[in-house]
Amino acid sequence: MRLHLLAVGENRAVGRLPSLAVLPCAIALLLSACGGGGGGTVRSTPPPTTPTTPTVPNFTPNVVNDASLAVNPPAIPVLAGPASLPQYSRHLVLTNAAGALGAGLTGQGVTIGLLDTGVNGANPALQGRVTAHFTHVDPATNNTSVDDVVGHGTVVAEMAAGKGIGNWGGGVAQGAKIAVSRIIDDTPPPDDGSGAGNEWHSGEGVGDYFAGINAELADAGAKILNNSWGGVYWSDPGVTTELDAAWRQFVVGRGGLIVFASGNSGTDPRYAGEPSDIARLPTLANDPDLAKGWITVGALDPDHPTQLTSYSQQCGSAMDYCLVAPGNVIFIDPHAKVGDASYSLYQGGGTSYAAPQVSGAAAVVWSAFPYFNNDQVRQTVLAASKDLGALGVDPVFGWGLLDVTKAAMGPSNFAWGDFSVAFSGNSVWRNSIIGSGGLIKRGTGILTLAEAGNFTGGTRVEEGGLDVRKGLKSNLDISSGATVWALGAFGGNVTSSGRFLVGAATPTTITGNYSQSSGGNLGVWLGNPLKITGSANIAGTMSILGVKSGYTTTSHETLLNAVGGVTGTFSDLKAAPSVFLDAALAYDPNNVFLNINRIDVSKAASAMGLSASAQASAVRVESAMTAIDAQLVSGVPGGLGTAFIDAAGALQQTSNAAQADLSLRSLSGEMHAASTALTFDSIDAGR
Is residue 70 a part of any domain in this protein? Predict the structure, then answer.
């Protein structure tokens, strides 16, 4: 048989019949293993060979190559291991920050704004990263010649973004910058007797005051505003209205994120169950848009890490946008300066010191995924938290304990609805994702889901690419011009007007139905067909991407199997740039097949422009392949042993034209002459 190979299982005497029609990278799925084999007569010295260029007709594959097919998605970068943390790093251990630090995810390019007592810019943990310092306290009653008299703001900055010094581990976002607005007096005001600080009233200008402070910090580049302060309350609804309008300007108008300490009145039963009024402003204002840019933070007790500190107020009615972080921490002396002979360590506690750890985590997330909006950063930080207390979100701990590294790996829960992103370049999400929301992918970039997509909302790929490594539970819709690389189990329906490219590494299955429009393109690897439990309604293009590693093709390859039946046909058959085919599609009620015709080896070598010696060897290899055909058709064992026929299958894995040329020249006697003799003598013995 010169042109057609037998299907697997037909008249197979020994070995497995390879189809030599699929040519990965330039030439022929054809040549790399022919030097092996055994049996027959062995010549100790092969006859001399004079390379000549055989006269053969041109070879032209009948399947058009599609140069635009990107067979493989971008590789997933390997992250460095967790950082080794020094002795005084308990806050980093409890918040699982070592992985992010080790991977270099430290908030670079993000500025955290602080509303506080000021910041000591000469502090060794912060040197060179305090980029703006605004003062809004009365110089008549405050020492404005010193950046931070109290030291509170400096400690807050250290916990958010301080770099490690000696045996102190540092803050969370050690590459972030700090902008500070000094709004807290050097001497705290006395409580008015309420136990909650001092009361605000409408008309006093508090709304305008904070609108100006927030805008000033936003103009300085701050995307996150940390608020480690409290001591105020109100019962006047007009105050709520003023403050809501002020903070909305930053959250809605500027796309910023607010982080607020829950408050330190946890020992007072009147206040313990709820955050302070200002910390739960989105709830008091009944403003869901404000909540999309707001996180409230309680204080976890590091000595008893399943409970709050005694002073921390609970998440309460703010639980849907609340979490906790360690409240009792160790830090560098806030008054220390670069150049001091030594730096002392201090210990302190408060929700004031829990909040900046969350601000730092938000900076890490925003740096890793700069295309996220404020709500998406908030969702990512909240959803990554380790659940504490009652199962799920609860009034004590909210979402749970801050997990910096998990948050830095990307979204993990679409609990708030659809998650829509648009970007260029490549981005990797490394968490498995749950939730009732879906995913919308826009922009020219490629998004890789490294873990399982177990969310149930729909997935729409409208632009660019989506690289699915471990399957999707949701329905999938692919728009024209978009690409999905698919590995694993797809639990819903797949509707494609773009490219759905099945991977080679593992099986790809669809539990629902597969529907492809006339503009769609389904790509598969030989040896890894697409398997569908439902039905397949097909049109458009079928593309062959290559041969699965280690697989020997047959002359009758299954490309698609649909238990629920196949309707329609593909109007076009194409191949990836590295694949050359002489083949045609075929159908039955449940399958789409590829019938492959074997390509003449010598014609392929000539057509691919290989060297003269390689083309000479190709003539003899073609004779060997003809002998394989004849032996397998007859069903009578001959001189061709199992080892040789199996080796022929390995010829299909030639990776490039240079490798093919090298293999053929080796067979011609230029290299490994003894191996060549063994192969061809085994063929001679069978004739």
Answer: no
